[in-house]
Structure formats: structure tokens, C-alpha cells
Amino acid sequence: MTRDLEVVRFRATERPDLMALAWRLRHQVFCEDLGWQIPSLNGIEMDALDLEALHCAVVRDGLVVGCLRALSTAGPYLLEQSFAHLLPGPLPKSSAVWEISRFAVMPSVPDRREVGAFLVRAGFICGHDQGARALIAVTEQGFERFLRSCGLEIKRLTPVFVPSIGTVGASRIGVIQCDIGERNLASIGLLPAAA
Length: 195
Prior knowledge:
The protein is an alpha+beta fold. It has a single domain (2-187), classed as 3-Layer(aba) Sandwich (Aminopeptidase). Helix content is 29%, strand content 26%. It has 5 helices and 8 strands; from the N terminus they run βαββαβαβαβββα. Strands 1, 2, 3, 4, 5, 6, 7 and 8 form an 8-stranded mixed beta sheet that branches. α3 links the parallel β4 (97-105) and β5 (134-140).
């Protein structure tokens, strides 16, 4: 039930309490559950991009049950630093394009899908409020399917999804884009649906 959820948008230095909870959630999801081979120390998954990013945390009863990181592509961002080989053309470098990364939902919450959809909406609002016209992400195919199930129109920027290194199980990653236009805004309830 999403009535008891609150979204808090912050920078790491503004809310170190929430940032620490988000880092722990990210460690649980990405390092423990998905088996990503990324730096993590003492149950905390963080990197240098966290200091530049806007973060959205979904909070329930003081606990971070979902989080994401948003970065303008005008500055440093994950795709540019670690996955540039995935895109066949030039990388986005614009304040009108924001990257969403480190999207995580606590595995133990019973309404995980609803929390995820709530977080997708928070990411869209964050991008919209920052003047973005599009959101991009390096993602696994399963997350692309989840976004489509939320009613979003997604465009693949990579021609095919490629095998991911350092994850548990078979996984394929690619780059997707989601425009912040009327259709997508309506599909997540930020605009009235077109008749």
C-alpha cells in the first residue's frame, strides 16, 4: 500500500542519514542479491558519483525501502565512465538528459512492485523538475520490462543487450531512454490521460 510511502529527494551531504540507509540497501540489492562485482565496504555500496547526484529515497516508517540516483549528463555519469562501449554513437552530454542509476527496492517488502512503481514515478518527477526532456539508464532487460509494465514508452539506445560481467546468473545489459513527454507523464499519473 503506497499511502504510507514518502519520497525524499536529497543530495548526499544534505541527508547523510538517508544516504547511509540507501547505501546499505544498494549493497543488499546489488552486491548480495544480484552479485555485482562493484566496490563495497562494510555493507555499504557507494561511489564518487553519489556526491554529485540527486537521490530519491522511498521511506516507510523511517526505513529506506527504495532508492535511485539521478545525474545530469552535463556532468560525470555512470554510462560515460563505465559503459561508454555500449553506445554505438556519441554519448549524451546535456542538462536536458539525466541518467537514472542505482535503482533499488528492498527485496523483503511485500509490495515490492508497488514500491518500484512509486520510485519510477519519483524518478520522473525528479527529472521533470530538473528540466530534463529524457531519462537514460544502463539496465538489465528485466528492468526494461518492468518500466514497460508501468506503462512507459521506452526506446533502446543499444541495438542489442549484451552479456553482463560480474552478476549472478545470466544477465544482459543495455542502454534505454525514456522521454519525459506527455504520453509518459500521463502513464504515471502526472498528466491526465489523453482521450
